[in-house]
Design brief:
Elements lengths: L19 E14 L2 E8 L2 E7 L17 E10 L14 E12 L16 H6 L1 H4 L3 H23 L3 E2 L17 E3 L7 E3 L5 H9 L4 E10 L10 E11 L3 H19 L11 E3 H8 L12 E3 L10 H8 L3 E7 L7 H13 L6 E6 L2 E3 L8 H11 L6 E7 L1 H18 L10 E5 L4 E4 L4 E4 L10 H7 L9 E6 L2 E8 L4 H9 L5 H15 L6 E4 L3 H9 L29 H6 L37
Parallel strand pairs: 3-5, 6-9, 11-17
Antiparallel strand pairs: 1-2, 1-4, 2-3, 4-5, 7-8, 9-10, 10-22, 12-13, 13-16, 14-15, 14-16, 17-20, 18-19, 20-21, 21-22
Helix pairs in contact: 3-5, 3-14, 6-10, 8-10, 11-12, 12-13
Length: 617
C-alpha cells in the first residue's frame, strides 16, 4: 500500500470518478466560498482541486493550510458540474472531496508568491531558488532542460556517436577567458584549472582512435555575466569527429539541431542545409558575426561613392582609412522627426559619432547633408539602394570596426521599430571563413582571432605565402536569431603547421612545446584529420523557452556578480584549510570610518606583503 499517494496531482480524470484516492503535494491556493474551502494541491505532475466541506473531519485543520505547506489528502473523486470545469487544468473535469488530511510539513510565509509567475527581484528569487523552482514556468523550464538533454543523447547515439567523459581537474587552457584555479594540497604552490572546454581532451580522444565523441560537458570560465552567458559554469554539447571535412560536421550538427527544435517547438525553422555566410560578408551586410536574419535589412558599403565628396564628415573618415556603411529602408520617410532623432541618439549610445540619413520623395531628396552632395553622388546612392519615393538611406561613417557595429545595431533597431523583425521562428546560419589572424594594436603583433588549434585554409602554403590578414581558417559559428549557439573548427593536426601558425604570432617552437606539449606529442604518433563543435545547451534552451536571460533555464545559477545567494558561494574557508594548501591570504585592509569604498578601497597591497596565492614555506 502506498503511504503518501495513490495518484499524482496531475493524474486524475473522469475515469477515476467514484474512487477513493490519496494525493500529496504543496498547498498551491486556498479559496473560502462561504464555508466550503477549495484547496489546490500541487506536485511535480500538476494540480488537483480538493473540496473541504464544513462537516468533514479535516475541516478543523483549515488554519494550518498556509500556502506551500505539504499535505496529504484522502477523499473521493467526483465530477465537476459543467459551469465549474477548469479547462486550463488537465484535472479540471474532476475534484476530490476531502475526507482526511495530514499536514506533512508546515510552511512559513513565503517571501514571494509561488502560485503567481509575477516579476520580483531576481536576487530574492535566487536566494530562495527552491521556491522559485516551484513556480510553473521555472519548473517547466527545468523539466524541458532534462528532456532536451535526453533528446541530445538519443540523437547523438543514433548518429553514431558515443559519450565519453573528460577530466574536471586539469591544466590551464588557452580558451581566452580567465581560469578557475584549484590549489593542490599534495603539490604545494601548484594549481589545477577547471576546464574552460574539453578542447584538448576531445582531440586526444580522436588521436586515441575513438571516431565520434560527444559529451554534455560542464565548462568553467571566470567571466562577467550577460543575458546569454552565465558567469562561472555552463554546459555545451561537445562534439568531435575524425576523418571529416567542414561540410560533414555541418551535416551532423544540422540533423541534431533540426531534430531538437522540431521536437520541442512548433515555430518555423530554417530548412537544412543552413545558409553559409562568410565572416567578411556577415560583418559588412549585418554589422556582426552573429546576424539576426529575422530582420530583412542588408547593410551596404558606400565608401567608394564618397571618395571625392565635399561632405567633410565622410571625407575625413575615409582619409583615415575608415568606411561609410549605408542601410536602405523602404517606406520609412513618413516617420516623425522624433523617430530620426531617436535613432541618432541610439547610434551614439552604441559608440557612433552620429547617424546621417537621406530621404527620397516624389519631389527629390531631403536631408541635412544633401546640400553637400553632388548629383552624381546622389544618383549613385539611389542606384546602390534602388531607392524609391518614401525610402530612407541611413549612414554610419567611422573606422570599419565601429561603423560595422553601429550600422548593425541600427539595422536591428529599425527592424524592431518598423515591425520588420519576424516575431516567431528560428533563423539559423553558419558563419564561415573566419580570419585566422588579427592585428593587435596594443601588442603590435599578429594574434589569433578565433581558435589557435584551427587548420588554416591552404595549410602550410598559406602560412608561408599569404599575408596573415588574408589567411582564413576552417573555423565556423552556428548562429540563430542573433545568438551564437556554438563555435567549432577543423583542427590543425600537423605539428609542423602548428609551429608555423604560432610563429606568426611571435611564439617560438619551445613556447608551443611548453604550452601544448601533451597534444603535440600525441600528434607525432599519428593523428587523424578531425574537427568538431560545441553547441551551447543553455542557449538552445533560452531560444526554446524565449527566456529573457540564461539564468531562467538553469536550476541553480550564479547571479550577475558570480554569487550563489542560496548557499553563500564564494565563501570564506578556515585557516586550517588554507594551511593544508600552503596558502596565505593578502586581503585589502578594511576601510577606515568615512574612507572611500569600492575600487578606491582595494588598492595594491602594502610593500613587502605577499601577493594572493603565495605558498607558505
Amino acid at each position: 500500500m502506498q503511504q503518501y499517494r495513490t495518484h499524482t496531482c496531475g493524474e486524475l480524470r473522469k475515469t477515476h470518478v467514484g474512487q477513493s484516492v490519496t494525493i500529496s503535494g504543496w498547498v498551491h491556493r486556498v479559496r473560502d466560498h462561504g464555508g466550503v474551502i477549495f484547496v489546490d494541491v500541487r506536485d511535480h505532475y500538476g494540480v488537483t482541486q480538493v473540496v473541504v466541506n464544513p462537516g468533514s473531519a479535516c475541516y478543523q485543520d483549515s488554519t494550518k493550510w498556509r500556502c506551500e505547506s505539504v499535505v496529504k489528502f484522502t477523499g473521493r473523486v467526483v465530477e465537476r458540474i459543467a459551469e465549474t470545469v477548469n479547462s486550463k487544468l488537465a484535472t479540471g473535469d474532476i475534484e476530490v472531496v476531502g475526507d482526511t488530511l495530514e499536514i506533512l510539513s508546515e510552511a512559513e510565509v513565503t517571501p514571494f508568491s509561488v502560485a503567481l509567475d509575477s516579476d520580483c527581484d531576481e536576487n530574492l528569487r535566487l536566494k530562495y531558488r527552491f521556491l522559485d523552482l516551484r513556480r510553473e514556468q521555472m519548473h517547466a523550464n527545468i523539466v524541458l532542460r532534462s528532456k532536451v538533454a535526453s533528446s541530445v543523447r538519443r540523437r547523438m547515439v543514433d548518429l553514431g556517436f558515443l559519450e565519453y567523459n573528460t577530466p574536471i581537474l586539469t591544466c590551464s587552457s588557452p580558451e581566452g577567458a580567465r581560469d578557475f584555479l584549484v590549489p593542490s594540497r599534495l603539490h604545494a604552490g601548484k594549481f589545477y584549472a577547471l576546464p574552460q572546454a574539453p578542447q584538448i581532451f576531445k582531440q586526444l580522444l580522436m588521436v586515441s582512435g575513438f571516431d565520434r565523441y560527444f559529451q554534455i560537458a560542464p565548462c568553467f570560465r571566470d567571466e562577467d555575466a550577460r543575458a546569454d552567458r552565465s558567469p562561472g559554469e555552463f554546459y555545451q554539447i561537445d562534439i568531435e569527429m575524425s576523418f571529416v571535412t567542414q561540410e560533414e560536421v555541418f551535416a551532423v550538427v544540422e540533423k541534431l539541431i533540426d531534430g531538437i527544435f522540431s521536437e520541442f517547438s512548433t515555430q518555423a525553422l530554417t530548412a537544412t542545409p543552413y545558409p553559409r555566410i562568410t565572416y567578411r560578408d556577415s560583418m559588412l551586410q549585418y554589422g556582426t558575426d552573429k546576424p539576426d536574419l529575422r530582420v530583412p535589412l542588408i547593410i551596404q558599403d558606400a565608401s567608394d561613392i564618397f571618395r571625392e565628396t565635399g561632405f567633410n564628415a565622410f571625407k575625413q573618415v575615409l582619409a583615415k582609412k575608415g568606411v561609410v556603411r549605408a542601410l536602405a529602408v523602404r517606406n520609412c520617410a513618413e516617420q516623425p522627426r522624433s523617430f530620426f532623432d531617436g535613432l541618432i541618439a541610439f547610434s551614439q549610445e552604441k559608440g557612433g559619432k552620429g547617424l546621417a540619413y537621406i530621404t527620397w520623395t516624389a519631389e527629390g531628396v531631403k536631408s541635412p547633408i544633401a546640400k553637400f552632395l553632388t548629383p552624381a553622388e546622389l544618383d549613385a546612392l539611389q542606384k546602390l539602394g534602388n531607392m524609391q519615393p518614401g525610402d530612407v538611406m541611413f549612414f554610419a561613417a567611422d573606422t570599419e570596426k565601429v561603423a560595422n557595429k553601429v550600422a548593425g545595431e541600427v539595422r536591428v533597431r529599425l527592424g524592431e521599430l518598423l515591425g520588420l523583425k519576424e516575431k516567431e521562428g528560428y533563423k539559423f546560419c553558419w558563419i564561415v571563413d573566419f580570419p585566422m589572424y588579427e592585428w593587435s594594436d596594443e601588442e603590435q603583433r599578429w594574434d589569433f582571432s578565433h581558435n589557435p588549434f584551427s587548420m588554416p585554409q591552404g595549410g602550410m602554403d598559406a602560412l608561408l605565402n599569404t599575408k596573415p590578414d588574408q589567411i582564413c581558417a576552417y573555423q565556423y559559428d552556428l548562429v540563430c536569431n542573433g545568438i551564437e549557439l556554438s563555435s567549432g573548427a577543423i583542427r590543425n593536426h600537423r605539428p609542423e603547421i602548428m609551429y608555423k601558425a604560432f610563429e606568426l604570432c611571435g611564439y617560438t617552437q619551445a613556447d608551443v612545446e611548453k604550452k601544448f606539449g601533451g597534444l603535440l606529442n600525441a600528434f607525432r604518433f599519428g593523428a587523424p584529420p578531425h574537427g568538431g563543435i560545441a553547441p551551447g545547451l543553455d542557449r538552445i534552451l533560452m531560444l526554446l523557452t524565449n527566456a529573457p536571460n540564461i539564468r531562467e533555464v538553469i536550476a541553480f545559477p550564479l547571479n550577475q556578480n558570480g554569487q550563489d545567494l542560496l548557499l553563500g558561494a564564494p565563501g570564506e574557508v578556515t585557516e586550517k584549510q588554507l594551511r593544508e594548501l600552503r596558502i596565505k591570504l593578502n586581503l585589502p585592509a578594511a576601510p577606515a570610518a568615512g574612507a572611500a569604498t569600492g575600487a578606491a578601497a582595494t588598492a595594491a597591497p602594502a610593500p613587502g606583503k605577499p601577493t594572493p596565492g603565495t605558498p607558505i614555506s
